[in-house]
Structure formats: C-alpha cells, structure tokens
Amino acid sequence: MRSIRRHTRLFLAVAAPFALFPCSAALAAPSAAVVAEADKRITADIARLTAMYKDIHQNPELAFHETRTAAIVAKELKALGFDVKTGIGGTGVVGILKNGPGPVVMYRADMDANAVAEENDLPYRSKVKAIREDGSESPVAHMCGHDAHVTWMLGMAKALAGMKGQWGGTVVLVGQPAEEPITGAKAMVDAGLYEKFGVPKPDYFIGIHTAPLPTGTVVAAPGPLMAGTDQVDILMKGVGGHGSMPQMTKDPVVMAALAVVQYQAIVSRTVTPQETAVLTVGSIQAGADNNVIPATALLKANLRWYSEATRQQMLKGIKAVSEGIARTYGMPEDQMPVITMKGSSTPLVNDKELSARLGKTLQGVLGEKAVISAFPPATGSEDVHLLLGPYTDVPFSFLVVGVADPDLFAKAQKEGKQFPYAAHNPGFLVDLKAIPEGTKVATVAMLDLLGKPE
After folding, report:
1. What positions does the domain Peptidase M20 dimerisation occupy (predicted)?
2. N or C, fewer C-beta in 10 Å, the chain?
3. Active site residue 180
C-alpha cells in the first residue's frame, strides 16, 4: 500500500485551519506487527477489492431496492464465517463474527445510490436507470461513495476473518439500506434489529464516509460533525383548467413558484445568523402538458439544522408561507397545502474520547500529518447513528476518508476551488487507490477497538 507522506503538503492546505492530535494520551493501539499483517493482507486483496468496487459501481440501486448489493454483502460475509441475517428493514444485512471474549464492535456501510446521471468517462461508469415509486424513470449512480463504503467493509471483514489470532470479541457488520432518504437506519431498528434479529448491543460503533479530500487523508473529529435533517413534501392544491383561461383556475404552479422564493426568507430573515440552517427545494412536480394548468403541485424540500429550535422555526415558516400563499390565491381552508414529514435524523455528534482514540491510532499508522482531529460541522447529514436505537449511551465515531486523486485535488486548489467535486454531483469520483486506503482505515479502526486475544 502506497505511502501518503508525499501528499502531506496537499493535506495541510485543507487541514491548516484545524488542529492535529496532540501526542499525549497513551492508547492500546494495535501493535506494529498486527498492523503490518493487516497491511499485507489488504495489499494482496487489492485486485479483488477493486473488481468488487467496479462491479457495485456499475450496478447501483436506489433506497430499499439494494437487493443485488445486499446479496453481495450476505454472500461475502457468509463465506468468511459470519452469522448473516438478511431482510432487516427491507434489504438490510447484518453479519456477526464471534471470536471469544472481548468488546462488541459495530460497523456500518450504507448501500444505496443516488438518482443522478453519472458524467464520468469511465469504462465502469453507471448506465443504470430505474423506475421510481411515482412511476417516473430516473438515472442511478453511486455519486456519494456508498459503493466504496461497501467495498471497504467487505475488505475489512476478510482481513479480520484471517486474523482471528490477533483480536478477540465480536464484530457486527451492518449493510444499511436507504441512507440517502434518511430512512434506512430507523427501518432496521423498527424491524427488530436488536430484539428480533438478536444483534448484540455494541460496546463501540463506528462508520466511515468518503469525502473529496486527497486520498490518504482521514478526518477523526470529536463533537458535532453533521447536521440534523428533515425531508418534507408540500402539496400545493389548486383548481386546474385550460392554460388559455387562467382566470378560471387557481394555479398551483404559480403558488409553488412563489413558495420556493419565499421559503428562502425563512432562513435569511427569521433564523438568527449564528445558527446553521439550510432550506433547499430539490424538486417541483406539477402537470404534464403545455396548455393545462394542473390541480396540484408538489414541492420536495430538505432542511438542515443543529438546533431543535431552528428546526421548528423552519417547519413553522414552511407552514405559514405555504398556507399564506394558498389563501392569497383564494383556496378555502379545507384545501390548504398538505405537509408530509418523511425521513429525518438528529445531528451526528462524535464521541470525544472515541474519536481521539481512533485518531491517535490512525495517526500512528498512516503518518503524523495524515489525520485531522477538528473539522467544521458540515451541513450534510447522516442517519448512521440512529442504528443504535435505544442504546444512545454507546460511544460512536464517524470517520471521513479522502477519495480524491491528489493531483486532481491540487489542480482544484490552484483554481481556487475548495474541492474538485462534491457528493451527489454527476462528476463525483472515487480514486481507485482509495479502495485499499479506506479498507486499511476500517481494519485498523476495528482492530483498535476489539480486544486482544487471551
């Protein structure tokens, strides 16, 4: 596995505003011999892991439709000796590997892809299209790195299964569906992840996500890392009719257009500037013909927040704006907009001690300058922590692994860009050299938390 040291300068361009881990606090990190063995196993597995990644990338699946991906996860884990449970919350998979006394360590990889058309010119790019729940056809692609997440987990699983003499405890690996709509974790817990399927309460819980940082960099930051979120549908009702006679209608398209603009004032004029708040309308769906005013228009909005008070302010604002517009255009009280709450998640907050422990260990393995320990809270969101269900006291840490080619990252920096691309962008790209790097991070993190063999 290649060294990341030659990319230190690039990394520091990103890390400069933040602090690196202090060199205090002795930790029982994996020994050099154990890390070397893991490194050797992962290096020998690169060709298989790369082929697996390309296969999953070429065959993306939307939320709760990850049947093929879930089958890959189940098959691979069964072959490694894991006790595998499938169909949890739809397509969720859990693999449990017991190896004597020691901690129970849970790890999650999400499996779903995005409704985005990939623009990367790759021989393994996605060309998949799928029919969505509303009957519409949509392109599908892994533009958030979940294909890498699955590959990293399965690579780590193979390394741990071959190193049972170097650790003790229980490994719980979760293949989670539907992270993108923020509904998959809750679905697995509601389906009886712990009660019905017998998953043991973890002593530690970790997850890893891609980021367009240079390959070889890792973020292990304590405290608030990702925002809370809500997915909200607003159905504007109107009176349809002929496009040539708008005076005989109550046009929901106009209502929806006004609502999109007025929603933005909720954040800019009602939420204090010191609070993080984002309100985005990602979709407007109305009508089908040029000359027909439809009877309804659907807005799909997304909220990001860290404060519950801010969340409530945005939700109240959406209701007030939507109903105000409907009344202005003459809609009766029994035809007010219908607001539907869909997937939601609380802010993701990393455990301070666990994050420091993992960061220190990874710093020792990857290099002193490789791990960033403080990162500004993002407005992106996750539901990974909701997998803990009732066990909110379990230490949890979410790591971020760079997957951008260092040269591409350097080029973006010279052009004044913060990153070469963003998640959910048609050009999101995982550097193939990040496949073994991410696998190594996952494996070392697990070995750090699992017990030592007796």
Report:
1. 232-323
2. C
3. yes
Architecture of the domain spanning 228-345: 2-Layer Sandwich (3.30)
| Residue ranges covered by each domain of the chain | 5-225+347-449, 228-345
DSSP character string of 282-317:
EEEE--SSTTEE-SEEEEEEEEEES-HHHHHHHHHH
Of the candidates 140, 196, 151, the residue with the CA atom closest to the CA atom of residue 175? 151
pLDDT digits (tens, 9 = 90+) for 227-279: 999 999 999 999 999 999 999 999 999 999 999 999 999 999 999 999 999 99
Question: 5-225+347-449 is classed in which CATH architecture?
Answer: 3-Layer(aba) Sandwich (3.40)
Q: Does the pLDDT value for residue 6 go beyond 80?
A: no
Q: Are 372 and 20 in contact (CB under 8 A)?
A: yes
Is 144 annotated in some ligand binding site? yes
Active site residue 383: no
pLDDT band at 374 (very low <50, low <70, confident <90, very high): confident
List 147, 180, 431, 448, catalytic entry: 180
Cross-strand bridge partners of residue 31: none
SS3 at position 431: coil
The CA dihedral of 310, 313, 318, 321, to the nearest 10 degrees, is -140
Q: What is the pLDDT of residues 300-314, one digit of tens each?
A: 999 999 999 999 999
Does the reported pTM lie above 0.70?
yes
CA pair distance 130, 151, nearest whole angstrom:
23
Does the annotation list 209 as a binding residue? yes
